[in-house]
Design goal:
Length: about 300
């Protein structure tokens, strides 16, 4: 039994540690956030096409074509994520699309389906993604993710209360180009990637022990990301702004080259107001809880 119209939602994500190094088999820690992307599908005659979308991307039609038939579906896409900034808007779109398609067919997409089919969509956007973004979007909550020797390890990570503020550079980083740039700087940057792996394990151990005191480790992570060449002056200036406004630590999150900075705070207000005064878009984020157990392993 199908329906005439159906909606799927999936959250965006923030990477706490391990972006870029995750591509080379090191672990990463990411959290699903309380913002995301909603896809509505409805049956109607004519070619399948996007009727309304806040995500404007030349690859959108191709991405939809990986999951939808070539005719008979109208698509609407809404999102409250900043697009192209490292918060996983394309991964959230991928997972929301899998969920909406299943709902249109009168069923619920489980984690495996979201993970497998979502990856096909993510590949259209990012070429050779590690799979981290859509895994955390499909699962919700906190995740320690590792993909090595063709095997994917996704471990739920229970998190202490973390207060995070996102500061937006308003510049979209190109993930595929940034990943290719890091690859071109290997093997001379390999010791830095090793250190990122160790640091990520340290952050995961602290969080798993209920210890939210990871500010200094986030600062260290940012310094490593700078050294592998994915930060820039705008990103660095927002990390400094967050720190001088009382953040315990701040780093770029996602591919870099612009995108967003995350700041760990005790109280969001001083960082939010410092950002406001300088005209920098900023907001606090909460964690999207893990999805229902039957939907993930
Ligand atoms: C992008 O959100 C994170 C990167 O590590 C790329 C990836 O994991 O595919 C830069």
């Amino acid at each position: 039994m199908g329906s005439e119209s159906a909606t799927g939602f999936a959250p965006g994500k923030l990477i706490l540690s391990g972006e870029h190094s995750v591509v080379y088999g090191f672990p990463a820690i990411a959290i699903a956030v309380d913002r995301g992307t909603r896809v509505t599908l409805h049956r109607r005659p004519g070619p399948t096409s996007v009727e309304r979308s806040v995500i404007r991307d030349a690859r959108l039609d191709k991405a939809l074509g990986t999951l939808l038939p070539s005719s008979g579906i109208g698509v609407e896409i809404d999102s409250d994520l900043p697009v192209g900034r490292g918060m996983g808007s394309s991964a959230a779109l991928a997972v929301a699309l899998v969920r909406a398609r299943a709902a249109l067919e009168g069923r619920v997409a489980d984690f495996d389906e979201c993970h497998r089919e979502g990856f096909a969509v993510e590949r259209v956007f990012h070429g050779t993604p590690s799979g981290l973004d859509h895994a955390v979007s499909a699962r919700g909550g906190g995740v320690r993710y590792r993909r090595a020797d063709g095997e994917v390890h996704i471990e739920p990570l229970s998190l202490p209360a973390l207060r995070l503020v996102v500061l937006d550079t308003e510049v979209a980083g190109n993930t595929a180009e940034l990943v290719a740039g890091v690859r071109s700087r290997r093997p001379s940057i390999d010791p830095l990637l090793d250190r990122m792996g160790e640091l990520t394990d340290q952050i995961a151990s602290r969080l798993a022990a209920g210890n939210a005191d990871i500010g200094g480790l986030l600062d260290w992570n940012h310094s490593l990301l700078r050294q592998i060449g994915v930060s820039n002056e705008r990103v660095d200036s927002l990390t400094r702004l967050a720190r001088v406004s009382g953040a315990r630590g701040a780093k770029l999150s996602g591919a870099g080259g612009g995108g967003i900075v995350i700041a760990l705070v005790d109280d969001p207000e001083p960082v939010l107001s410092a950002a406001r005064v300088r005209g920098v878009p900023a907001f606090s984020v909460g964690i999207c809880p893990p999805h229902a157990p039957e939907e993930h392993p």
